[in-house]
Structures are given as structure tokens and as C-alpha cells.
Amino acid sequence: MSTSRPTPEQVLRRLEWTVLRRLDGLLHGDYRSLARGDGLELADLREYQYADDVRRIDWNVTARLQVPHVREYREERELAAWFLLDLSGSVEFGSGEQSKLDLAAQFTALVARVLTRRGNRVGAILYGAEVDAVLAPRGGRGQVLHLLSRIGRRAARAGAQPLTDLRPLLATAGQVLRRRALAFVLSDFVSRPGWEQPLARLAQRHEVLAVRLVDPLERELPDLGLLRLRDAETGEQLEVDTGDPAFRRRFAAAARARDEALQAALARAGVDALELATGDDLAATVLRFTELRRRRAQRSGAVAAGQRSRFDGATAEVRA
């Protein structure tokens, strides 16, 4: 019986039929603007002229100056979406039928397809033991298939490798992403320390979403007696007694501490986080993502409104 991996076409077609069709009825048009800019940026104020849109009249400034003034905006360009993919050895782990790597590939394919269906462009940076490839942003279904194919090539590699270090991945993104972009960092964040600062720098220029890949067995061990565990990256093996309740409690406590430390690091970097566990409903995960974007847009809108208010007042005082 063949155990070969499904082809990129098979994976994408299954996602389109089983998940994307559900999303079409749930997003209610939100996916049309998943990769668009944050909106309109106030550029200037000027006196009202015939044929100007009355909806752009700034009534606060008009009242101060006793002359109608309108706002002029500079519209942000559409954002490209980038997938920063950690394809290191630890991501290949999975306690069930699906590994974290399978999950990352499916999430990437699904979100990329949602975006490219409406003319958006997607690119990717692939990291294994080092940065393996940079795929320039392009649109269309073919780009999604190409991305899936490159992920599959990485998944076919085997053997021990150096410990994961996310710093080169994030540093490469900082160099490659020149215009403002939407960046998904897909990783289990099992990495050498030091990745927080390059992630924070990336988040200062771009909209960054950390998609953390997890497996339930990484948080809580069942009672399975003596087990031999192997580190997916170093190859080191360790025999543990999962039948010992005290050991299972220590394991769970260490996992909670690791979760809390990671959440704090992402918060310090100013990055929104989305958790993706093996076996999760992908449609529900994408909906959580759109809700995160909506909240961010609301926060950005509130800040922009405050900035415009201060700008309006200062402009009125200067012109008065």
C-alpha cells in the first residue's frame, strides 16, 4: 500500500472543496480585504472647492476658520502577504495523523488561496537549518501550488540538523520586505534565544502575525509507561517513565511555563499571536485571524482618529 505524500494539487483541491467553500459563506466579504492596507492616511487640509465631496468637509476646522475646509487623504497601497515558514526538525513532530508541518502547509495554502483569489500577491521565506529559499510575491493559484511544492521538498529531507535559530529567518525578512507587508511567522518557536529583537524590529515596519504550531502531546503526557523520546533536531534520545504521576506533573508545569514565556515575548515584540494545534479546524482558525485583523484595524483607527484630532486643532490654530 502506498504511503506517499499527496501532491500539492491534491492538497490544494481538498482544501478548496472542504474548507474554502465553508469560508466563502462565513467571512461575508472580509476575505476581499485581508491583505489591504490600514486605510486612508490624512495628507492635508485645504479650502473647499466646487465639486468637492461634502463628506470630506472637516467641520471642526470649518467652524474655527469660518471657511469650509476639506480633508485630503493618501490611500495606502494594497499589501503583499508573506509567509515566514519555520520548516525545522521540531516542526515535523505530530502525535496523530497530522504533523505540525502538515498543519503549517495547509494553513499557508488556505490563507494564500483566500488572498490570491482576490488578486493579492503572496510570497514566502523558507527556513530549515538555514534560509533555504525566498519566493517573490506573486498572485494566482499557480503561486500557491509552487509554495506547497517547496514546502513538500523541505519535508522530504531527513536526519539530524543544527538547533533551530529563527534569527536568520527574521533578519532575512527584514531585508527582503521593503514595502509595508502582512507577514505570517509560522513556527513552534522552539529556537535558540535572541529572536525577539529581530521580530520586534520587523513588527515596527510591517503587520506581523505569529502563528504558533503546537501538538497536544507537547503540553501533557498520557500514562503510556516507559517511553524513549528522540529530539527531532539533535537526534538525542531519552527514556522517561510516563507512568510516574510526579513526572507528568513536572512536564505539564514546564510546558505551561514555556507557553507563558513565549506569550510574554510576543507581547513585548508587539506581535499578535494565533495558536494552531494539530487537529484544529482550519476554517475556525482563519476566522480567528480575521477577527485579530479587525481588532487591529479598530485600534489603528482609534489611534489615527486621535492623531487627526490633534492635527486638526494644530492646523486651525496655525491658520487662525
Can you describe this structure in just a few lines?
The chain has 320 residues and is an alpha/beta fold. The protein folds into two domains: 40-76 and 302-319, no CATH class; 80-280, von Willebrand factor, type A domain (Rossmann fold), CATH 3.40.50. The chain has helices spanning 8-26, 59-65, 100-116, 141-155, 167-176, 196-205, 245-268, 282-319; strands spanning 40-47, 69-75, 80-86, 122-127, 131-138, 181-187, 207-214, 226-230, 237-241, 272-277.
Features:
320 residues, alpha/beta, Rossmann fold, six-stranded mixed beta sheet, two-stranded antiparallel ribbon, 21% strand
Domain unit count: 2
Query: What is the CATH C-level name of the largest domain?
Result: Alpha Beta
What is the C-alpha radius of gyration, as a whole number of Å?
24 Å
Named CATH topology of the largest domain = Rossmann fold
Quaternary status of these chains?
single chain
Approximate shape:
elongated
N- to C-terminal distance: 83 Å
Helix content class: 40-55%
Can you characterise this structure?
By secondary structure, the chain is of the alpha/beta class. It folds into 2 domains: 40-76 and 302-319, no CATH class; 80-280, Rossmann fold, CATH 3.40.50. It has helices at residues 8-26, 59-65, 100-116, 141-155, 167-176, 196-205, 245-268, 282-319, and strands at residues 40-47, 69-75, 80-86, 122-127, 131-138, 181-187, 207-214, 226-230, 237-241, 272-277. The strands form 3 sheets. A 6-stranded mixed β-sheet has the order 5-4-3-6-7-10, with helices on both faces. Strands 1-2 form a two-stranded antiparallel ribbon. Strand 3 (80-86), helix 3 and strand 4 (122-127) form a beta-alpha-beta unit. The longest helix is centred in the C-terminal third of the chain and has 38 residues, at 282-319. The chain is elongated. The N and C termini lie far apart (83 Å).
